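Support reply, case 0932

Customer input (verbatim):
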Amino acid sequence: MPTDLQDLVSITLTHHGKPHTFSLPRDATISDLSSSIASALSIPPLNQKLMISQLGLLKPPFKDPDLVLSSISSKKITLMGSTVKEASAIDTAASEAARYVQPRDRPKQKVSAYKTHNWAKEQAESQYTFHTLRPLPYLPNPSRSLAFLQRLKDDAGIKAAMLKHKFSVPLLTEMNPIEHTQSNAEGVSRTLGLNRNQGEVIELRLRTDAYDGYRDYKTIRKTLCHELAHNVHGPHDRKFWDLCKLIEREVEGADWKSGGRTVGEEEFYSGDEVDDHGGWTGGEFVLGGAESTGSAPMQGMSRREILAKAAEERMKRLQEQQGEGSGRSPGS
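Our regenerated output:
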């Protein structure tokens, strides 16, 4: 008997916190140990994982199936793995869980809102718009001018007004400031907008006189409202001014991006004050020009005096329009 014990090697391993000792022949290998574990603990080889100190994790099929047990008998061995009964219970529980998945446990489906197209409105907007945008290619940075014209075309207020009044303009372009600036004894006048042939072409003065920047957006948009009114009325009579002011209110009211607001019959802007005041003549918006009513020249006046004079002229013009109901003779 003592001789038989000397021919055996004892391997003690821990499984689920409990020690288990296996006595195998001294020439037994780790594959033999795996078979003994399967028989004694009902843990199939595919479920076995042996964590052996200094060797790491070993599991069937072993890289070295002939590793003799005598070389690891003194090492700490931990067995990880489920018995056949435990594995079956886990599979059953998983199947049951899959059958009774609660709605909140299921992955949420992404719901995309169904967007309907107002084809009639889209077709109308494509008809009542500016069909061509054209910057002046020989002036600096024409791409910036094109972007400015595109902004006007896409302006929510402008689009709404053009759709309502059925304005279709073949060409919206910029004007060269130097070609529309006049100097005389009364001072300097600058044309801000032109309407040719009742809406075939609308020109806007986008740039500053020195070509180093662009004018205030709201001022140019207001000029555009004026030129759109010339699509219907040529002379600056009461009908023209009524339509012009109506378009201005519609553009401002429909522009949800605007910083302005309307209070009563007057408009107030939260942005910078627009300094481009002046008089309207014919189909042009002229900045800084003297009125045909015989106003004094503005040459030599300070900026504050010019603004005060312009405000006085506007009040006088408004009173004349309300009293007479007729405007000036038509121009270009």
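We compared this against your earlier run and they match. Two observations from our side: Residues 12 and 21 are 4 Å apart (CA to CA). Residues 259-284, 287-300, 327-332 have pLDDT under 50 and may be disordered. Please reopen the case if you see a mismatch on your end.
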